[in-house]
Amino acid sequence: MIQIFGTVCYDKVRIIDEFPNLIGSYTTVNSEKMFLGGEASNTFMCLIRWLIENNENKESVKLIAEPIKKDSNGEIVLSFLEPYKDNVTYTCLIDKDQDNEFLKNSPGADIYVCLKEKERTMFGIGFVEADQLMYNIKSKIFNDCLQFGNEHWIALDYNTPFISKEIIKKAVETKTNLYIMDHEIDSVIKELVNSSDGVLENLKEMSLVYQSSSDWFGNKNGDKQVFLTTMKEWLQSNNGANKYFLLILTDSKNGFGVGGTLRNYKTGESTYIEPYWFDPVQIPSDKIVDSTGAGDAFRAGLIYSLIYKNQALNKSLQFASASGGLNCLSYGGNSRTPTFKEILELINSKQ
Known about the structure:
single chain; alpha/beta; UDP-N-acetylmuramoyl-L-alanine:D-glutamate ligase; 9-stranded mixed β-sheet; 12 helices; 15 strands; 36% helix; ketohexokinase activity
């Protein structure tokens, strides 16, 4: 089972010509649309649509959604997910009139997409509260929502840092395979290594992917060799624990570095790969509309190709890169995800 855990919310996308030049100034909104949003949603929607498109086993993927309050915005989120309800588990659904100390509003984001700069900025609500609520009911989540064990995968992101940290700990304890995106993991790995002698052995018997970016590691639009050096240093840290991860460090349209341990979770066979640079499958810049969800679509592509289909690493990275790029051709993170056919056509056109 591949479980996509984390952020499920509404995205209210507003299209503007340019960002305000001064605080307090006025900017016209050209249009506004409501979409399903969140890192987990974006990755899940790519995966489930490819499985449907190719008549493959839909039961192999499940979305584990953060708490949703059934207010007007929450009901919109639920309606987006209704066609895929058999593949969705909700950690907590709260009636709109139900009193609770945490979640007053269903999680959501106001996203402003600038046409001139082809960039976006976001304002969120409810995410910290949802994370706190899940931390409080973590026993229920562990027992009723997630499946642990070496035959399972859990993918998670950093919008839910408290509960995600607990899931990482539980996963290492149970040797559950992990795909971690943008989460600050050095502190939790260091804590685990210092707390138990068996942690390194458990990590060795897990398949681990860590996807992050220059937004977190620095050196945005910087020298590629600096990226690779940074990756080598990271993989050598935490008393050797980090070397068990396959590290993918992205730098937007410039490409990404790849290195670390590639382990087949079915056979247990593993290979250590020295960090190297991978040029992306390019999308013409004049066709890019909105980069929301590009990293999530990349993650979906790698999960589908490398983990689900057991394809070779470079072939899987091509698929992931094409998926992330094509996802930028429409507004929102998953309003229109790239089809399997479109991804293959783009890859073939570059060869």
